[in-house]
Amino acid sequence: EAGVAQSPRYKIIEKRQSVAFWCNPISGHATLYWYQQILGQGPKLLIQFQNNGVVDDSQLPKDRFSAERLKGVDSTLKIQPAKLEDSAVYLCASSLLPSGLLYEQYFGPGTRLTVT
Amino acid sequence: AQSVTQLDSQVPVFEEAPVELRCNYSSSVSVYLFWYVQYPNQGLQLLLKYLSGSTLVKGINGFEAEFNKSQTSFHLRKPSVHISDTAEYFCAVCRDTGFQKLVFGTGTRLLVSP
Does B94 contact A107 at a Cβ distance shorter than 8 Å? Predict the structure, then answer.
């Protein structure tokens, strides 16, 4: 079974530039998550999709971050314009269901973003 | 809301020695608990989880954890570590009903030396 795919793996941009990350979840997984992991911290949930609808985006800085999951499969996370504090690893995860005993998230390798 | 505290940012240990990584949580409702491992330049992988039932949970790679409700703890243990266990370990919690969102601790780096 193929895992969660993410690209690019690394990205370096200057502040005020824009950047986009792509995620392809495990086939058949209805729920998709984007996390931000700042160095020295645990992952923080940015947004959760159930199929192509947003379930939770309470911690997404909506003035600069946006995300979409067209057709309920792969997803794109965008930052525009980027700030220095956006430097982090962006993790995508997917799960078969969002709750209950099948609640297990499978994580991709992440995209390491450096904003200079 | 739920929160997780991992007091040890780094735990050095010699190969074949036992190890315990500490995790304490805070929640006003019943929770599920998880331990994830993150190897360098990789995503997180689930080690084990507590949903209900026996408070001693066994996971992959010889790890186990014990849920202690009175002490709100979920410490991770391994009786004998290997060099390959060197990684970052994250404890996470979510409520057991309603909308469930994983809340992670800050992580503990396990450094195993020969």
Answer: no
